[in-house]
Amino acid sequence: MVTGRAEVNIKPWRTLIKELEEGNRRVKWRDREPYAYWKGNPWVSDSRSDLMRCNVSKHHDWNARLYALNWDGEKRQGYKNSNLASQCKFVMACRYKIFVEGRAWSVSNKYILACDSPALFVSTHFHDFFSRGLMPGLHYWPIREDDKCSSIKFAVDWGNKHREEAEAMGRAGSSHMKEEVKMEYVYDYMLHLLIQYAKLLRYKPTVPEKATEFCLESLACPATGIVKKLLMESMEKWTEEAEPCRIPPPFNPEELREIMERKANVLKQIESWEKKKGSQMRKQI
């Protein structure tokens, strides 16, 4: 996130978020195509492979527009078709963005959330450092893992029918990423995390006699190509004079229970809407 990902040409977060904001301004949400969009590597997990069944075909239109991405091929072609900012600014940008995990935790959720589009989150099993702060129905729309196609179609139909609510959800997710996951807070979080880990140590760390000191130059100077470009681009130009932010105290059991109940109630409400819609459709057949 700090330095980006050179192996797939993803720019540092501070740079990329500005490009995503530019794309959001260029194509307004209501002017985007009324479908759900996903582009990625479908071969890394069963869940992603299963998602590809929801693509438009001669027989079904689940309101999803899905594209397989081969990163090895992209690398050979100079990453012409994998610019993350393009998902927001091109004319064919879609109103909704799908997030589905790969082999494990995936970094793509923050890019998807930052696009001013309602993020459709297929049920997740892994957490990013910020994901527990997201609320279904406010920052994203939950998608059932065991019935992705019907769930995606319902979400898109609902959003196109309730455009003000859907647009507000997209803005809430995007604002959360821009304001709550800005790099200043990320660095503060890293500091507090390291401090807490240090408290668990049962020994006093010492510098070995033959240790080699790493500094900015020793990291960036030997690098070449895109690796060096992203390292230099992500380099901080000054030190922060202000004290790091204070981490709020942990939730007490009652507060935590209230948050979990709110999330559970939203999930149950949306699932009941989906079941009701499915029942109505079966009666019409």
UniProtKB/TrEMBL annotation:
Signal peptide start and end residues: none
SMART domains documented for this protein: CAP10
All residue ranges annotated as the Glycosyl transferase CAP10 domain in the record: 1-204
Designated name of the protein: Glycosyl transferase CAP10 domain-containing protein
Species lineage: Eukaryota, Viridiplantae, Streptophyta, Embryophyta, Tracheophyta
